[in-house]
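Sequence in, structure out. Go.
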Amino acid sequence: MIAAPQFLRPDEYLALEAQSDVRHEYLDGQAYAMAGGTDAHTTIALNLASELRSHLRGTGCRVFMSDMKVRIHQGAKFFYPDVMVTCDPGDRDSQLYKSAPCLIVEVLSDSTEAFDRGKKFAAYRHLDSLREYVLISAQQPQIDIFRRSETGQWVLQSWEGIDAALVLETVGYQIGFDRLYEDVIFDPIPSE
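Output:
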């Protein structure tokens, strides 16, 4: 991500973003241009979003991919998750962003993994509606999922190997890694 040189208020960011050919995330008054995804990244996100869309059809919950923003009102931040689900009727009123997702998924890349695990997750934790935050590797069949417990604590669970399955408690869905990673040509693991 590349920072724009000027400080922007949230309303200025939204106005500029509506006219931009390039997507930008917004953090602390700065807009950051987003890089394009790889084949593996796009395939994984599409596989999961397609499965979730079929599973949630008719429930009132909606699935969005990386063209829909999520807004975190705490500190006025906007991000484009790879996949998100919102079941909140209030999110139907906003055409530019969603504010109450229950599930957010990020497919990890070398350039964004630290940010997705760090500052972005710190921001996402301010969403009272969020129950599960899923981080999917594009380099190997491996997933970390953070779940908010009844006491508000975030609990990490990890799975790896093509025989594993991802269980999404928030939306009552399970998918085997073989289906999640179907047609994926893994991004190469960088050498040390």
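Check: Residues 1-34 form one domain. The chain has two domains: 1-34, 37-180.
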